[in-house]
Amino acid sequence: MSNETHPSLARRRALRAMCACTSAAAAAPWLGSAAVRGAAVGALGASGLALSSQAHAARAAGASPSLTPQQALAKLVEGNDLFLADKLPPLPRNRKRRLEIAKTQTPFAVLVSCSDSRVPPEALFGQGLGDLFIVRVAGNTVSQEGLGSIEYAIAELGVPLVVVMGHERCGAVAAAVSVVKDGTGFPGAIGNMVQPILPAAISARSDKGDWLDNAVRRNVVNVVEKLKISGKLIEDPIAAGKLMIVGARYDLDDGKVDFFHR
Predict the structure, then answer these.
(1) Is there a domain that residue 59 lies in?
(2) Dihedral sign from CA coordinates of 158, 121, 251, 75
(3) Distance of alpha carbon 183 from alpha carbon 113, whole angstroms
(4) Less CB within 10 Å around the terminal CB: N or C of the chain?
(5) What is the pTM of this model?
């Protein structure tokens, strides 16, 4: 038996190391400490996790065309236009498509969105199985675990686009506004969920227009800008022109996604 470490085993070891680093940072802000994040990046780099051979082979074989960040964004814009016009073509969600993506995945975008049941990303952008890598939580904020998920999609799957999408009349953002406005308290873990949104609610207080909607937009911008400086796994592909992170707002009434922060 060869002494060379099998790639999948090396990857599993690196992922375990990354999980341990992430756990150590769980009590810290979502960007984590430099030391902890550095250890996580080192674990990934040592294993060659930057791009798995499986994902690379799938793209090379034409399983999913390699898109630039601009092309990926244009694809989402086109999908939302078709959604608005009620002209979405039949999407490949059948057995054939399920089997095509069973062994590997090649999504072309990461969607960081709210868990609100009225905001299903695949439907809003006319995408099918395996097209989008989705990170959803109320208020579309990014925890340490969410950041790790995004970094995985970028480093391991080669995704060229990250979209942070808020939406009209977001309940989580409304809760943050009520904390700032009325000193409202929330039971259980809801207060912790609202906490990362408070800076946006505070900043939006002095903006002209609707406080809630301004806070929705500010929250999106805050998340986008934090992601852009969150570490080498994201910063390096941005600098190389291989990754773009944009902010968007979905209108519940008219169905339009406004990519307002690029």
Answers:
(1) no
(2) positive
(3) 26
(4) N
(5) 0.78
